[in-house]
Structure prediction request, 415 residues.
Amino acid sequence: MSSCVQENQLRATPRRRFVISYAAIKRGTLWLLGASGGLALMEPSPYEVIFLIAVFVFALTGIRFSQKLLPLALLLLSYNLGGIFSLIPWMDDPDAVRFIAVSVYLMITAVFIAGILSQDAVGRLETLRRGYLFAAWCAGFAALLGYFDIANLGETFTLYGRASGTFKDPNVLGSFLALPIVYVLQRMLVGQTGLMRGIVLLSVPLAALFLTFSRGAWGVLVASAALMIALTFLTAPDAKSRLRIATVSLVAVAVMIVALLIALSFENIRSVFEIRASLNQEYDEGVTGRFGNQLRAIPMLLDAPNGFGPLRFRWIFNQADPHNVYVNGFASYGWLGGLSWICLMVATCYVGWRLVFWKSPAQLHAIAIWPVLFVTILQGFQIDSDHWRHLYLMLGLVWGLAALGPDYRNASASR
Prediction:
């Protein structure tokens, strides 16, 4: 009799079903998007595929675009329209067509990232951060394998004796690694990540960034980290927090100096470092050097409303690229594109500096992202950054956070 009762009870008890919420699917897709951003050796890369999946997943429930995102969208649109007009005489050049197509695609990624922050901003930022850190570790680990030629991977993961990892250019790898390093350092400052765990998390990306021997990436890391520390200190809630920030900062600097001295004790590393650390490189100097070509291009561009055409700078000056995103804006995108890019950077600086001082649940994220983006904007004077995926990611994040309404920004105060 008792066995029959137990059997009936088991039948009456509903079975638990494994259910995945739609919000979890969205976050998982965003993690994959961040995690795939570190693989750029192939085209199309996994990032492009995951981005299309992310657009599909978020489009199922709709994406809310605030009117505050109109400046971002319109300036990026006019920038790319300038590129399309400049492309017209060179439609038979597949490289030029691909160049502009990539620009249009990157525009869409920035606007999409900005739009999805209208809901669950902190959760989605945290998910992207974790995915980005995973990508940084993968790219950084590949860079170390290549630099030390482990398993004969030197030819695959290095370029000109510099670590490039899963990127085609050491300079891009170095700048890509700056944001996750700054993020981890910030979490150490505010006590969300322990000191030893933080040092472990920083180890591979920081070593890889150093071995890129990219002067621009070194500058981005040092300047953005210093700016982040200053902003975190200024916005700290109390004296105890400021004391921790100052103490952890000093410890982090000391650890990095010791690590640098250990690295420079190796002859092969020290010799390359001494060459790369010099501000004057052979290819920078002279009338036909990098900066000389930029100066020669300016009066020519003043007489060319449509620019030279996408990728035509190399044919005129026998140099791969202008190595200046602002000169390249006028050269490859015409007056319309060049002026649009300058206006976009000025507007972003206005938005970003306001953003970091707004009290909100996402303020710590803003203080980590904006310094890296701001210094990257300045870095554009010495490198062509208009096709960097992480630049457009940061643009979207900053504008998306800035578009959140007063109710969201006051949420921390009401809490």
